[in-house]
Amino acid sequence: MWNYIQLGIEHILDPEGLDHLYFIVSFCLLYTIRDVRKIAALVTAFTVGHSITLALAALDSISVNPDLIETLIPATILISCVLNYWALLKDTEYRVPTSYLKYFVILFFGLIHGLGFSNFLSAMLFDDESIITPLLGFNIGIEVAQLIIVLVVLLFLSLSDRLLNTEKRVRLALNSLITLMVLLMVFR
Fold first, then answer.
1. Are 129 and 62 in contact (CB under 8 A)?
2. pLDDT tens digits for 137-166?
3. Cα dist. 170→27, 37, 141, 163, 181 in Å?
4. Distance CA 114, CA 111 (A)
5. Which of 40, 65, 75, 109 has its CA 20 to 30 A from that of 22?
6. How far is it, in rounded angstroms, from Cα 60 to Cα 122?
7. What is the pLDDT of residues 26-65, one digit of tens each?
8. In 3D, which of 14, 72, 11, 30 has the Cα closest to residue 171?
9. What local confidence, expressed as pLDDT, does residue 90 receive?
10. Distance (Å, rounded) from C-alpha 78 to C-alpha 98?
11. CA distances from 177 to 51, 157, 170 (A)
12. 39, 146 Cβ separation under 8 angstroms
């Protein structure tokens, strides 16, 4: 089990696959450290979506064109960034989003991101191995790594809010950086 947990952690922190990192940071930008429970629920929704498509693909119950998924993954990040711009620029005072729809959107985006890694999970299973232990361990690792990233980002935002006395500017700058990095990823 530990090997699969490690693989999940490495998957999120892999410098070759920064899409997860960009996505997680992008949906943290609308929250503060006081919202850690809300953001943890969003991370879990993402992991649930990720788990569903990983399991379905590993069981050969679903097959999706990899080129389509490689297009949709950056699209989910860009959509998140566009929604961030809208939330950050529409009001003079920054407010945390309150809609429950965001949980379903994040879960749906998790479904897409899970398809991007589904072939790897299938390949690491032995012929007679059950999918349960690898899938559970891998997703525990993903969840742990994502929560660590969330805490680091929220602590950074909290510090920058206090030191710079502005919530919007740092968030807008990070959102712009993520948008630029994803666009470079797409057009590379």
1. no
2. 988 999 999 999 999 999 999 999 888 877
3. 14, 22, 29, 11, 16
4. 5
5. 65
6. 9
7. 989 999 899 999 899 999 999 999 899 988 887 888 888 8
8. 30
9. 82
10. 21
11. 28, 15, 10
12. no
User: Is residue 21 within 8 Å of residue 149, measured between CB atoms?
Assistant: yes
User: What count of residues does the chain have?
Assistant: 188
Domain coordinates in residue numbering, the chain: 2-187
Query: What was the pLDDT predicted at 62?
Result: 87
Cα torsion through 69, 70, 76, 78, rounded to 10: -160
Only one residue has tokens 């007679």, namely: 128
Report DSSP letters for the chain, one per residue. Answer: -HHHHHHHHHHHH-TT-THHHHHHHHHHTT--GGGHHHHHHHHHHHHHHHHHHHHHHHTTS----HHHHHHHHHHHHHHHHHHHHHHHHHSSS------THHHHHHHHHHHHHHHHHHHHHHHHS-TT--SHHHHHHHHHHHHHHHHHHHHHHHHHHHHHHHHHS-SHHHHHHHHHHHHHHHHHHHH-
Q: Which amino acid is at 85?
A: Y
Q: Are 138 and 4 in contact (CB under 8 A)?
A: yes
**∠ CA 145-79-176, rounded to 5°:** 75
